[in-house]
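Dear colleague,

Following up on Tuesday's group meeting, I ran the structure prediction for the four-component complex that the binding team flagged. I've pasted the input sequences exactly as they went in, so you can double-check that nothing got truncated or mislabelled along the way. The structure tokens for the whole assembly follow below. Feel free to forward this to whoever is handling the docking comparison.

Inputs:
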Amino acid sequence: MIEARHLRVLRAVAATGSFSAAARELGCTQPAVSQQMKALEQSTGTPLLIRTGREMRLTQAGDALVRHAAGILAGLTAAEEEVAAIAGLRAGRVRLVSFPSGSSTLVPAALAALRAAHPGTRVSLVEAEPPRSVEMLREGDCDVALAFRYEGRRDASQKKGGGGRREGEGATADDWDDLVVRPLLADRLVGLIPENHRLSGDDAVSIAEFADESWIAGCPRCRRQLVDVCESAGFVPRIDFATDDYPAVIGLVGAGLGVAVLPELALESVRPKGARTVTVEPAVHREIVALTLPDLARVPTVAATLDQLAAAADRLSAAAAH
Amino acid sequence: MIEARHLRVLRAVAATGSFSAAARELGCTQPAVSQQMKALEQSTGTPLLIRTGREMRLTQAGDALVRHAAGILAGLTAAEEEVAAIAGLRAGRVRLVSFPSGSSTLVPAALAALRAAHPGTRVSLVEAEPPRSVEMLREGDCDVALAFRYEGRRDASQKKGGGGRREGEGATADDWDDLVVRPLLADRLVGLIPENHRLSGDDAVSIAEFADESWIAGCPRCRRQLVDVCESAGFVPRIDFATDDYPAVIGLVGAGLGVAVLPELALESVRPKGARTVTVEPAVHREIVALTLPDLARVPTVAATLDQLAAAADRLSAAAAH
DNA sequence: CTCAAGCATAAGTGAGGCTTGGAGCCCGGG
DNA sequence: CCCGGGCTCCAAGCCTCACTTATGCTTGAG
């Protein structure tokens, strides 16, 4: 087995014509060079150098080895440089998956900052709702997943014993114990009602006030959360419309077809027309997090993406504070 | 510094998808694989593998490394194979230099046998007389030199003290102490005289009988030897012609222009016309040897060439015995 | 002849790799 | 529900290997 280190020394010897000069060039002592050449000759089983008094000449085998060494060492340094570029954030692609309202607010800000901080890095973005996005993460189809969870459901999975398993499908898709969970921001749920609604003058409204309203619900998880909260308030919401598309929800409310409860973030990039927001009691929050695999969290591009997501989230919540 | 050994292991891990399987493939234990991958990740400074419960996946950096590994390892094995081919006599060129009468007899037989024994090896042949051929050997312009020396001149160089230095030029060109000297055969000097010469009836003639003859001499070294021998016999030869070309010498003798003393080997491949050989007294021999550098003697192609030269010389002298 | 330079060798030291043995984890079968 | 098999990581011990310093030898130049 020829070692690359030996080839490097051999090349230096061939270039300088002497062991001592090669040693100086390589930054080691002359016996080290002498020993390495001896080892290389032993491993190849044939003399590579002929020591003739004055000069050091190559045998044919040595010449062949030096000839190959160029390509091999070039390949090695190319590999090192490419890996270093990825590790040094001068290259590399991170595959991000996000849910819709995240990809329209947090993600653009984060990716713009990432590109500014590390030109050369590339991000591919795919949209998927949390159960599916976590699945993609686990299957290696993405590197970072933006997801959210509603408060009180943090410990949706207690090891194995308890209740768990709300949907037969997900199995452990909602179990994030084995993932790196990076909290980004706490998103508040707000009520959205038509401007001409009877309660549109109030700033804060108990959710029980909406017991008899027609509801427009969002994605499955949000709908489930809505039903839970309403049940706690003592009624079952009458859901007339359900859509993943938040702009559509806002449009429906603006058209006076019902009321909705939706995350503040979903309103960030949309200007509701014909609708206004009200604070609902009890206050409900969802936590937006970035997820990744433990090993991936140590990959520089992934770590940088997480950092930029967190920074964007900070900026976002700071802006909302005003 | 990325080591080729690590790349080999990484490639096995990527191919098999597990450390244990890679270890089995590589013939080592699993912790060895685990440690090597850890070392590789540390030397590159970035994670290369992500261990996700079931399967082992590559990070982008790991993928880049595996991609480069193919070329690097291919280059390494190509280098190993080329060197092995040279070492195993399946390839390689040996540069041979010989004096004329050697290259017409010994050399063809030896090279034919070499090619038969080791197809793939190539030999390049250049003609040069001994002082120059030894110089070429020392300067790296050839690998094996066929040369000859006259008896009594074996120790032409006693370390440094004595007389030495016959020609100011050669300096150490006649000093073979630092060379590998492989004796091939002892070549006897024979007299060559015209068929109508007064002594052509004799089988053995004292050289003193030729004191008044016209002489035709060969190469400078042979001429010098001739002069020495004649001086010992008490006369100075009258040299009317001198040429390196033995066939020309033979032709001149055949034409009755004089007598000559020349090595038997020079007559091996020439049928003298109009001349016949006689044994001269005192008997003079020259020793034909193959020379090479000590380091070169360990090169397989060179060693094989020396062996075939020796074998050819044995066949030649065995044939001459009849 | 003396001096400088270069290579080879020997001995000592240190790092690093490999192995064995054990623990934790996940999966599938009884 | 438990349990065996397979996988990985961790720790400890051993051993090999590479580098260093120090020394001797040879060669070429002044």
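Residues 153-171 of chain B have pLDDT under 50 and may be disordered.

Cheers,
M.
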